[in-house]
């Protein structure tokens, strides 16, 4: 359903939406579910409101925000912006959904320059989640919303994650259950030629390319590409998606014992009585390490995507000191999964890069 017509059937739901809408019109922020991750929303039209997002999350102010809409018409009716031709086949197929597009800020566009972080473009997403859409529709405001985690922490995929990070800092969290996609939207820029993938996410690069109409030429944005550099100095990168425990990401190891032994050899850390977590997906089956907590991410890309951030938070709850993660190939959902994992990791051990 691509219209903004939605009937609110239940009295309780209506009361929640009414309360949330009142807060939003008062320039306050609200935690709410989307199909990707929970968002921390405020009116995109109010700089005062959007500043509260940055304050609650402790987010650096130079990182722009995505505005969420509940109908395609809002782009014209509220932002006074024409959608560039190139986006039309893409949004016809993938909106509503986990896709954000970058648009030029045209004259008269009322988007706050706190949302754009002073750039001449702004990003828009039409989520599929019913609660998200009902909230936007009910308040009749486009909602600027980053992920509702404390800055640097893994993104929240359950309401309890938002509460854990932001309790006492925001007036309301709407609980809509677990997020179906589990990692953030894909961000594309079609205002440049060739179009660019700025952030891999819930919609795969393959699904975008196959649309044609210019999208087959899509290239990885510089920042996106840079994340795949295999050689990295811990601490040099911008911290993101990081649990308290140290994350070690393995690539190309079919056997978990081989992988962990390689870590021991490399680091000189014998692990001894350390409590560790092992996040397994496609190949790692069992292991003989003591004190280990095994968390299964699932085998299909969709499952891994859905479970990843919650697994990192679970490992922290159990106070492990190291999280060992089985990496996946970078096809389909794998590109976004490895993007998030490589940012969360302080160390990456690639079997194919080991010189014997
Ligand atoms: O799935 C999502 O996109 C979630 C949910 C809540 O919708 N939101 C989210 O927002 O992940 P955030 O703020 O964590 O990430 C926004 C991303 C950043 O990588 C930012 O740099 C990029 O979108 N972005 C926003 N506006 C942009 C612009 N004008 N040009 C380029 N990139 C932009
Ligand atoms: Mg985020």
TrEMBL record:
One of its GO terms (molecular function) is double-stranded RNA binding. Keywords: ATP-binding, Cytoplasm, Nucleotide-binding, Nucleotidyltransferase, Transferase, tRNA processing. It catalyses: L-threonine + hydrogencarbonate + ATP = L-threonylcarbamoyladenylate + diphosphate + H2O. It comes from the Eukaryota. It is found in: Cytoplasm. One of its GO terms (biological process) is tRNA threonylcarbamoyladenosine modification. Residues 14-203 form the YrdC-like domain. InterPro entries: DHBP_synth_RibB-like_a/b_dom, Sua5-like_dom, Sua5/YwlC_C, Sua5_C, T(6)A37_SUA5, TC-AMP_synthase_SUA5. This is Threonylcarbamoyl-AMP synthase.
């Amino acid at each position: 359903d691509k219209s903004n017509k939605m009937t609110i059937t239940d009295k309780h739901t209506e009361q929640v939406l009414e309360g949330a809408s009142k807060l939003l019109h008062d320039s306050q922020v609200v935690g709410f579910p989307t199909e990707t991750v929970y968002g921390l929303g405020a009116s995109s039209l109010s700089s005062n409101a959007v500043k509260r997002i940055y304050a609650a999350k402790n987010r650096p102010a130079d990182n722009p925000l995505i505005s969420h809409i509940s109908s395609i018409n809002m782009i014209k009716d509220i932002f006074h912006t024409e959608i560039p031709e190139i986006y039309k086949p893409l949004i016809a197929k993938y909106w509503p959904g986990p896709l954000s597009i970058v648009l030029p800020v045209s004259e008269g566009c009322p988007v706050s320059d706190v949302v754009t972080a002073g750039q001449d473009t702004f990003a828009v997403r039409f989520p599929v989640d019913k609660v998200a859409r009902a909230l936007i529709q009910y308040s009749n405001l486009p909602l600027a919303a980053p992920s509702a985690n404390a800055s640097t922490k893994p993104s929240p995929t359950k309401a309890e994650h938002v509460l854990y990070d932001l309790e006492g800092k925001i007036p309301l969290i709407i609980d809509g259950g677990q997020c179906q996609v589990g990692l953030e939207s894909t961000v594309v820029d079609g205002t440049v030629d060739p179009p660019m993938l700025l952030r891999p996410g819930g919609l795969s690069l393959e699904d975008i390319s196959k649309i044609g109409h210019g999208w087959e030429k899509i290239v990885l944005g510089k920042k996106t590409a840079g994340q795949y550099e295999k050689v990295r100095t811990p601490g040099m990168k911008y911290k993101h998606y990081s649990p308290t425990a140290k994350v070690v990401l393995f690539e190309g190891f079919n056997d978990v014992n081989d992988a962990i032994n390689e870590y021991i050899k490399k680091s000189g850390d014998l692990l001894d009585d350390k409590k560790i977590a092992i996040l397994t997906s496609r190949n790692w089956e069992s292991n003989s390490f003591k004190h280990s907590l095994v968390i299964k991410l699932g085998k299909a890309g969709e499952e891994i995507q859905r479970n990843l951030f919650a697994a990192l938070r679970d490992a922290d709850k159990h106070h492990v000191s190291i999280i060992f993660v089985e990496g996946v190939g970078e096809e389909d959902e794998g590109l976004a999964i490895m993007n998030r994992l490589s940012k969360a990791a302080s160390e990456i051990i690639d079997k194919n890069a080991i010189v014997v």
